[in-house]
Structures are given as C-alpha cells and as structure tokens.
Amino acid sequence: MNNPLMNSVSANDSNAANRDNDSVTIVEVGPRDGLQNEKQSISVETKVSLIEQLADAGLSVIESGSFVSPKWVPQMAASDEVFRQINRRKSVRYTALTPNMRGLESAIACGVEEVAIFGAASEAFSQKNINCSVDESIERFKPMMALAKEHGISVRGYVSCIFACPYDGIVSAAQVSSITQKLFDLGCYEVSLGDTTGVGTAPETKTLLRQLGAQFDISKLALHFHDTFGQAVANTYAGLEEGYRVFDASIAGLGGCPYAKGATGNVATEDVVYLMRGAGMKTGIDLEKLAQAGSFISKSLGRPSQSHVGSVLASRAQSE
Ligand code: HMG
Ligand code: MG
Q1: CA of 195, closest atom in ligand 1
Q2: Hey, whose CA ends up nearest to atom 32 of ligand 1?
Q3: Active-site residue 257, yes or no?
Q4: Is 243 within 8 Å of 214 (Cβ atoms)?
C-alpha cells in the first residue's frame, strides 16, 4: 500500500523542496468539470475540437470526459466517442472521471490511460453526488484500483467540499485529511482538493493547506478551486505561496457541479496562466493560443467567457 503519511521531518524536507520548484502543472478540467454542467447539448465534434486546441496551447493534462451514469449527468454521455476521436499526443495525458466499475470498464474499452475516482469530505455530498456514503465509496473504489492496476492505469483521487458542503455546512480539516488519507491508501498517485462550492478565502486556504502540508507530501496534492464567490485566483495564489504546484483550472471558467446548486465554474485556466506568468512560474502554456481556445468554446456556447484574461485578450485580438 502506498502510504504518503510521512513523519514530520521528511514531510518538511520534501515540501520545502517542492516550494523551490518553479514549474507548475495545470490540469485542464474544462471539457469535463466545465461542460458537465451545460444545459444545452454540445456536439462530440465541438468537444474534440476544444480538446485539440487545449493540447495545441500546451496543456499537458486534459480531463476529457466522464464515464458516469447518463441519467445523472447527461452531458457526459458521449465521452467514449470523444476519447475515440481525439488525436492523442504523447505529450498529453487525457484523463476521465470514473465513479464505479462500470465506468472504469467503459474507460478501459476506449483506451483511457488515466482515470479519477471522486469522493467527498462530507457525507451528504457523497450521497447526493454518487449515491453512497463516504465509507461505501471507498469500498466501491477498491476493486476499481485493482482493475486499474491490472491495466497499468494511473488513478487520481478527488476530495469534494474541502471548506463547506451545500447540504452539511462547514467541513473540518480533519474530515478533509481523513478522506485524503483513504484515497492515498487506496493507491491514488495524486489527490485533488476541491472547493466545490467556491466559498473558501485565501486566509482559510492557507490555514487548511498548512495543516495538510504538515501531514502529506504536497507534491502529491493538487488544488481545485471553483470561483463562486470570486476567490479562486486569490486561493490559487495562496496555494502557490504554500508550495503547492498542481492546479486544476477550466478554460473560460466553464462549469460547476450539477450536485452543488449555484456553484459556478472552476478558476479560469487563462487567469491561472496569467497569474503564474506574473509569479515567474513555468507552465509550458501559450497564453494567446489558450485564449483562442477560450473564445472558441465561449462562442460555441453562445455566451461571454468567465475569464477576465481571456475576455481582454479576445477583445484585443478583435480590434487588431
Ligand atoms: P446509482 O443510481 O446508485 O447507480 O448511481 P446504479 O448502479 O443503481 O445505476 C443506475 C443506472 O445508471 C443504471 O441504469 C446503471 O446501468 C447506470 P438503468 O439500469 O437504470 O438503465 N449506470 C451507468 N451508466 C453508465 N456509466 C456508468 C454507470 N453506472 C451506473 N458508470 C452512480 C451511482 C455513481 C452511477 C451515479 O451516482 C453517478 O453516475 N454519479 C456521478 C455524478 C457526477 O458525475 N457528478 C459530477 C462529477 S463530481 C464533481 O464535479 C466534483 C469534482 O469536480 C471536484 C469538486 O469540484 O469538488 C470532481
Ligand atoms: Mg469541480
């Protein structure tokens, strides 16, 4: 079993080294977390084109779909077709969400090489999102981990509701730590910490991340901020300052979670890349090409981009 719970000396050493790392990894979740929440239908062609443009812009990890029940999230129903049609590049990891064995088997059938299982820090969110308790979800994930290992598939874990749950209210750091540990114990190579409802602020982010940093190797933790209360860029910077180097983001700020009413999209990828550029961090991403991808999907959906940076760059490009 992989156990990342380190004694405080080695955790401190490893986390200090992570702080010196001047590269960040941005995990693009727009084609999944973003588009899963859309009411209008989006063609496979549009999804595939978006994913190709994101790869052209230099994204190295793109969450491209979700093998969940179409009764629960209809927008992700054609994810198998999306995976079959994308022109997979060696430099890009195309990942998918899988809630159960059925989803994992479907992902394997269309050649997905990395998946994510998703749990929650709160009981009520777990019930509403995947129709089981937190403990039941861990039991559900066990055979999935075994099957994934058999097929050489890496598995990421998600923890939803790190600050608050739309049904249970405030979530404690102990709850976040407990589910994070369970996901690492299962064998997840990385755990993404989700502020699903987008309620956290930078000081709260720092406090939580410091607590988790005393317990875990932060090079194995990713941050997943939603922007409901407009705090996601500030929270991203708080995470960067705390030494975290993996950030989930969504092109044009698309999205939300269908089981967290009122939650808006993730922090916009364009805004995160701009922030990282200002902070002197390497992302490997071409901001202009990224903004074009943001304009493409915003036009396809018929509404303005939620990215500040994307909107500015698009209007400049128009006036040139
Ligand atoms: P259930 O109703 O308990 O499952 O749902 P079930 O086994 O009784 O199946 C119900 C029906 O779905 C059956 O069909 C199954 O065959 C089918 P029927 O017999 O009625 O015709 N089914 C499936 N079909 C396709 N693929 C599958 C699959 N599984 C069952 N994999 C289940 C349990 C987990 C399936 C359901 O709750 C579900 O799909 N939940 C997913 C919800 C979701 O996708 N939420 C959004 C993603 S999480 C998120 O956004 C948060 C995150 O971004 C981090 C953050 O922001 O915090 C990750
Ligand atoms: Mg999310």
Answers
A1: 57
A2: 130
A3: yes
A4: no
CA of residue 230 to ligand 2 center, whole Å: 15
| Whole-number Å distance between alpha carbons of 122 and 142 | 20
- Nearest ligand for residue 265 CA: 2
Q: In the chain, where are the structural domains located?
A: 8-319
pLDDT of 9 over the 70 cut: no
Rounded Cα–Cα distance for residues 202 and 232 (Å): 8
Q: Is there an atom of ligand 1 within 6 Å of 257 CB?
A: yes
Atom 56, ligand 1: which residue's CA is nearest? Answer: 196
pLDDT digits (tens, 9 = 90+) for 96-153: 999 999 999 999 999 999 999 999 999 999 999 999 999 999 999 999 999 999 999 9
Spatial distance between the Cα atoms of 96 and 28, rounded to a whole number of angstroms: 11
Res 4 pLDDT > 50: no
Ligand 2 centroid, distance to 9 Cα (angstroms): 33
- Residue 262: per-residue pLDDT: 75
Task: For domain 8-319, give the CATH number.
Answer: 3.20.20.70
What's the predicted TM-score (pTM) here? 0.95
Confidence of residue 2 (pLDDT cuts 50, 70, 90): very low
Closest CA to 288 of 315, 262, 270: 270
